[in-house]
Amino acid sequence: MPKTTCAIVGGGPAGMVLGLLLARAGVEVTLLEKHADFLRDFRGDTVHPSTLTLLDELGLWDRFAALPQSKLERAELNLGGQPVTLIDFGRLRQPHPYIAMVPQWDLLNLLAEAAQSEPTFTLLLEHEVTGLLRVGERVTGVRYRSPAGEGELTADLTVACDGRGSIVRADSGLPVREFPVPFDVWWFRLPRECDGEYSLIPRIVPGGLVIMIPREGYFQVAYMIPKGSDPELRARGLAVFKAELADLIPEAEVSTLTCWDDVKLLDARLNRLKRWYTDGLLCIGDAAHAMSPMGGVGINLAVQDAVGAATLLADPLRRGDVRRRDLVAVQRRRLPAAVLTQSVQRILHRKLVQRVLGGAAPQPPAALARVVRRLPWLAAIPAYAVGMGVRPEHAPPFARR
Ligand SMILES: Cc1cc2nc3c(=O)[nH]c(=O)nc-3n(C[C@H](O)[C@H](O)[C@H](O)COP(=O)(O)OP(=O)(O)OC[C@H]3O[C@@H](n4cnc5c(N)ncnc54)[C@H](O)[C@@H]3O)c2cc1C
Known about the structure:
Blueprint: E1 3-9, H1 13-24, E2 29-32, E3 46-47, H2 49-57, H3 61-65, E4 70-72, E5 74-79, E6 82-88, E7 99-101, H4 104-116, E8 121-124, E9 128-135, E10 138-146, E11 149-160, H5 167-172, E12 176-179, E13 183-191, E14 203-205, E15 208-215, E16 218-226, H6 230-235, H7 238-248, E17 264-266, E18 270-273, E19 277-278, E20 281-283, H8 298-319, H9 324-357, H10 366-374, H11 380-387
Parallel strand pairs: 1-2, 1-11, 2-8, 11-20
Antiparallel strand pairs: 3-7, 4-7, 5-6, 9-10, 10-11, 12-18, 13-16, 13-17, 14-15, 15-16, 19-20
Helix pairs in contact: 1-4, 1-8, 8-9
The protein binds flavin-adenine dinucleotide (FAD).
């Protein structure tokens, strides 16, 4: 049976960064990704200041800077008829104080190319993991399906990076704590003729919230609908939706939406494993803590989980001796960031999304407008929380180039 030292399931941000770092530590890594490429659009495109610094530390800055991208330097909110800067990344004392909007497939391709230049890294595309291998209680690898048929791969350690619908996590039986999310997302494209600016803060009217991500030639639109309301809203007809959309985004051309197939439903979820590991298995990224799209922070958190895990596990993997306490250390290091970030997302769900989708007009407190206008440096605090995260990670020495 084929064998590797570390089997990584899933080539999203968490899996690709973990694979690259461990390969640079000389660990034999096999990454299994179920798709044939990274060209899927059901993800956000935000690359945060802490991830930009990481790319620099990894020696990938020049290649990253050459990717098509736009910069988001601040986020404003209309308070009392005037725009107020609520999040100002420019105030961060960081080498790259902005959010780069880069199609995620470009970033993943870049990471995959860098990883594939390491002799110990193997990328297996079109390999869908279908379950775990076990000897007694210990996880010893994965079962997969590929165009060549079914197969098995044994590994000293398996890391689940297969996102919020993680098969590995489900098969592991690790208990999950689910938190209610009051919305789902309709995900569709609109033509981009005007140069509308992307904002982390959704565009809001009573009953509707929308985020528009600028991509080359089109806007990727995330339109929030009350949880579970998809069948009922679709039954009203596409014309009704297009009329509402035209009110919400008057500058956009909505006639390109010709049938409901153009509008994909994404199930927004927020949950967390109580324990991220069992013998022979670790879960990180959305597989350990599925993030809501609120605030656009899930990618950053997944990347930082990967850096933290690689930093702690490279040595034990090289020695061929990964113990339970090593996996405990990864969870200890990354759990506070996941808990705090999800707590803020849950507050935003309750105080903002639920109210607005229930038809209430958003009423930002006048006091907030006064305070932020008088003390503009306060905008550095949310900028740090969003841009750097709760525990920013840096590339370990073995991965730097
Ligand atoms: C609508 C929406 C919009 C979002 N927008 C943003 C945003 O703008 N910014 C942001 O930071 N976050 C955003 N998020 C959250 C963000 O997408 C996630 O937090 C982040 O992608 C998690 O990264 P990950 O690597 O853990 O998992 P994922 O990105 O989900 O990657 C998982 C990978 O595993 C692969 N995979 C799955 N199952 C298997 C299997 N059985 N075998 C092999 N491979 C498998 C998948 O194909 C995928 O490549 C958004 C989420 C949603 C739902």
